[in-house]
Amino acid sequence: MAKQGPRQAGTVLFREVFGTAPGIGASAPGRVNLLGEHTDYNGGPVLPIALDRRTVVHARPAHGFRFVSALEPGVVERGIEEGPRGHWTDYLVGVLRELAALGIELQGADVAVASSVPAGAGLSSSAALTVSAATAFAALAGKRLGPEALVDVAWRAEAGYAGVRCGRMDQTIAVFGRPGKALEFDAATGDRRMVPFPGTVRMIDSGLRHALVAGEYEHRRIECEEALRRCQRIMPDMTSLAAIPVRALPRIGRALPKILARRVRHVVTETARVHEAVSALGRGRSMQFGALLYAGHESLRRDFESSCDEADAIVALARKAGATGARLTGGGWGGVVIVLAPERSADRVVMRIQEGFAKQYGRIPQQWSGKASNGVRIESGGAG
Length: 384
Ligand code: GLA
What we know:
By secondary structure, the chain is of the alpha+beta class. 43% of the residues lie in helices and 21% in strands.
C-alpha cells in the first residue's frame, strides 16, 4: 500500500463507496512461518510470527450484504445462503455462515476491506481476512468471540466454505501473535508457547503466485493421507505423520513408494527441526537457528517438492551473500523467501540477493522487512 496504512485506506474507501463512516473496524496480521512447513495438517508443530502487515475490515449494519476491496474495483452484492464463487468474497461469506451457525446472525452489512498483506505471497492474506472479518462481524452483532472460537470460525470459513483444506497455523497466529515473539503451536494437542524472536525478518518475493485451492497443496495433503495409511500398516499406533520417530525413517523408506517416503521424511525431519529451533531461539543461538532454516528449505525442495526454481535461487544467493538462514515460507510453489541476517549486514545481504536474482531472471525481486507483531484487534467502535 502506498503512503497511508490499510486502516486509513479502508475508512476512506468505505466513505467513498457507502457514503458514510464505518461503524466498526477490526484488523488482523499476515504472518511468516519461521519453520514447520506442511506439518500443521500432519499433526506437527509450527513456528510462525505475526507480521506488522495487516488486513482491516470495516463494516456497518445494512439490508443485505455489499463488499468492496481496496485491491479490486467494484462492489460485490451477495446473499450468504448462496454457494462459493471462487472469489475473494467467499472468505467473508464463509465467515458470516460460520457465525450464523453459532447463533450470531447479521441481516446485512456494508463491508470494506483494505490490506498491506500481499496476496498469494505465502504470507497468509486469507487468514488475515477471515480473522479480521469474524471479529468485525461479531462486534457488529454486539458479540465478542473468545480467541479459540475465533480461530475456529476463521478456519472453518476457509477449510469448509472457501474450499482450501488448510491446517490451523495461519488463523492461530493471526489471533495469538505478539510483538517480539514467535508462536510454537502444536497442531496435534493445540498447545501454544511463546518463544523469543526480537529480530527482523527480510522477505524476498519470488514473484510467483500460487493457487492453493486447485493446486499442489491439496495434492500433497492427499499424498500425506495415503502415506499415513501405509505407515499405519507397519506401525499401527501412529496417529499422524509427525508422530513418527526419526529412527523409523529407514524402515518407512523400504516399505513405502519412493515419493510417499520422501513426503514422510520431510514431515518427520521438519518436526524435529522445529523442536531444535525452539531450543536454539530460547538460547539465542542464531547461527544454529539459521542452519535449521537452510535445512528446512532443502527438505521442501528435495523431499516435499513444494519449492520452485526462483525460491531455490534466492536461498542459494542468500547463502552466498552470508545470510544466517533462508527458506521458502508458507504454502509453497512461489511466494516469499525469508532471509535472516545480522542487522548490520542485512541491507547488504538483501541487495546482493536482488542483484544476483536480477542477473538470472531479468527483474529485481520485491523485498519487505517485518518484525513479530500483535494479533487481531478492534480498530474502532463495536463491542470492544
Ligand atoms: C498454508 C496453510 C497452512 C499450512 C501451510 C504450509 O499456509 O494455510 O495451514 O499448511 O500452508 O505449512
